[in-house]
Amino acid sequence: MNNNYLDPNEILIIDNFLSESHVNTIEKLMTNNEIGFYFNSQISYETNQEKNFGFYSILCQNDYTIKHHYIFEPIIYDVFNKNNINIQHIFFGRSFITTNAEQEYDIAHIDAGHYHNVFLYYVNDTDGDTVFFDKMHDEQLKNINYFSYDESLVWKRVTPKKGRIVIFNGFRFHCSQRPAAGKYRISVNYNVI
Predict the structure, then answer these.
(1) Residue 6 within a domain
(2) Engineered SS bond to 125: which of 3, 68, 96, 162, CB 3.0-4.6 Å?
(3) In terms of Cα–Cα distance, which of 47, 93, 49 is closest to 68?
């Protein structure tokens, strides 16, 4: 049975979906100088939290796309189709590079205030978990209530692994943990409906 909604209490962690040569090619692509990454002092969302910096690149936003988006587009459709989830539209895609910072965790957030599913792809082997919280956004609320990391609200963690794909309900609050000193973390994040 196909549907458009991912269970809010399920996080799908998918390893080895792509061949080793495919994940190596993606890593080379995302670490060469062909993709422009831009500095952002507030990488997760605008907050007054200091030192929440990182680098990002927009891969697609509604009708705007760069050529690198087309590497991920068929992967996204294949992953969701194999898990019996229909996709109507990929509306936002971006890549992030985060490094070690004084602030160990980024702000807890959701990517959009309307229903969506998230496709998360880890480009490299590193530490710096994605942390999921025991808190869901209520679509009826006008504002999104972002919050700082709170260990008591942690629901699940996923550790980055090169080529790992994670899909989850976009109303689940989540954040990134910063990698250890001397490391960097590259992820690709798409929002789909």
Answers:
(1) no
(2) 162
(3) 93
Domain count, the chain: 1
Distance CA 89, CA 62 (A): 8
d(CA 47, CA 183): 25
Using alpha carbons, select from 66, 75, 35, 19 the residue that is nearest to residue 192.
75
pLDDT digits (tens, 9 = 90+) for 114-164: 999 999 999 999 999 999 999 999 988 878 888 888 999 999 999 999 999
Q: Which of 164, 186, 188, 166 shows the shortest CA–CA distance to 15? A: 164
Q: Which domain holds residue 30?
A: 11-192
Of 173, 47, 50, 43, the closest CA to residue 99 belongs to 43
pTM attached to this predicted model: 0.92
Question: Are 127 and 158 within 8 A, CB to CB?
Answer: no
Whether 152 is in a domain gets the answer: yes
